[in-house]
Amino acid sequence: MRTDLLRRTVSLTLGVTMAAALGVVAATAAAVVDDAKPAFAISGLDTYIARSEVVSRAQTWIDRAISPYVQAERTYGPGEDRLYRNDCSGLVDMAWHISTAENTGSLENITKSIGAAELRPGDALNNKAEGHVILFKRWIDYSSGKFEYFAFGSAPAHISVDWIDGGSDGLIDNHSAGNYKPRRYKKIVEDTGTIAVGYDYTQMIIDTQGRALAKQSVGLYGWTVESDAAITQVASNGFVQMILDDTGTVWAKEDIGLYGWTRETDPGMTAIAVGNDGTQMILDAAGRVHAKKGIGLYGWTKESDGGVQAIATNGGVQMIIGADGYVWAKNTIGLYGWTKESSTATAIAVGDQGLQMMLDATGQVWAKFGIGLYGWTQESGPGQVAIATGTNGLQMRLDDTGVVWAKNTELGTGGWVRESDSGVKGIATGGGVQMIIGAEGYVWAKQSIGLYGWTRESDRMA
């Protein structure tokens, strides 16, 4: 977010429109983290991948102006782990980070059908009839169906804007709008920076315009708009709120209200986290971890070399997934001093009493107290896609069907209580509050473990 945006005077009409506007929430991110939510690591070939990483990968071909459009040509994606075909399907394959060379006919094998109203960043619009596919980037105006997308139907790879019904000419990227079918990659997952809640009960979300909203109670609406547009991640804990804008600049403050943010970094950061003791962590573009306590410009201590994939902090514990894919942890701010804790992991989370959770490459959940090599207790079988832990040992996990499970019992595979139907897209917990992004795109919350009992808190997320 830019300084002029943060300080802009609010229009008097804002209060009149707020009741209708505050219910609508949306998001992008992640490979992001915070105290009460898991941190999705950078993906590998054919692994689960966060929406924000899909968008980020697609953007690299735009930035590089990949050309020509020739199916015999091949271009690397980020990480250069494979070459992708220089065409529309190749762009989508690259963005989803898959190992196979799909086309508009075979994409159905790795995706599922969704409604146009459900389109979210990183989903696809597949025109099998005419042999073309585009990658959905964001809604510009949800009510009118105006959206932005990545495309490679002509050179170079580019970003375009159209209407979901094709607008006046009935076309999307020069192909019949009526032939496009919305599809969702089966291994795409929600970013963890789109909803947040800390032990102080402060909940944060990002709305359809990219604004940060916050409140401190469970219930329908009641959100306070806190920023202008262009927010990509939020984190909340220890009476500190953090946001990351689309330039990679970190901002922070203590009180709920419009604006009042303090800039904390220059642009170029990629992830944020904050713990209940006020420890803030950030990840820069080179994958280096920095930490500090106290809100203000700069003052960060470098804590690692580059290549770190994910960060989390809470309960005085800092966790990272290193460049080697291993989990490392420590409980002091300073350069290095990390203790190796595990072999390869794909997500991490830590609660306000120092309970650590990790998700391994098979989707199994593990947990433990105390920093040290190994000592993990297995908590689930494979097939989990997200983890979260907050207050008093409360743990949440999201399985690959989108069902939420929770418990606050002793460590082990038992004690999990099913809490939802399938299709949930994101989870967070802190202060005894659980938050989810439901299958229909609404934010829901509650303060007890059990099947259902959720209170709707917002309108549809875009």
Summary keywords:
Methylamine Dehydrogenase, Chain H, 4 helices, six-stranded antiparallel beta sheet, mainly beta, disordered N terminus, eight-stranded antiparallel beta sheet, 8% helix, 462 residues, endopeptidase fold (from Nostoc punctiforme), 2 domains
Describe this structure in words.
The protein has 462 residues and is mainly beta. It folds into two domains: 3-41 and 189-456, Methylamine Dehydrogenase, Chain H (7 Propeller), CATH 2.130.10.30; 49-186, endopeptidase domain like (from Nostoc punctiforme) (endopeptidase fold (from Nostoc punctiforme), Alpha-Beta Complex). Helices cover 8% and strands 39% of the residues.
DSSP, total strands: 41
Mean pLDDT: 87
Please tell me what the overall shape is: globular
CATH superfamily of the largest domain: Regulator of chromosome condensation 1/beta-lactamase-inhibitor protein II
N- and C-termini, Cα separation: 20 Å
Total helices: the number is 4
In a few lines, what is going on in this structure?
By secondary structure, the chain is mainly β.
List the helices and strands and how they pair.
Blueprint: H1 3-7, H2 14-21, E1 25-26, E2 39-40, E3 49-50, H3 51-63, E4 70-76, E5 83-86, H4 88-96, E6 111-113, E7 124-127, E8 132-141, E9 146-151, E10 158-163, E11 171-172, E12 175-176, E13 181-185, E14 188-189, E15 195-197, E16 203-207, E17 212-215, E18 224-225, E19 231-237, E20 240-245, E21 250-253, E22 262-263, E23 269-274, E24 279-284, E25 289-293, E26 301-302, E27 310-314, E28 317-321, E29 326-330, E30 339-350, E31 356-360, E32 365-368, E33 377-378, E34 384-389, E35 395-399, E36 404-407, E37 417-418, E38 426-430, E39 433-437, E40 443-446, E41 455-456
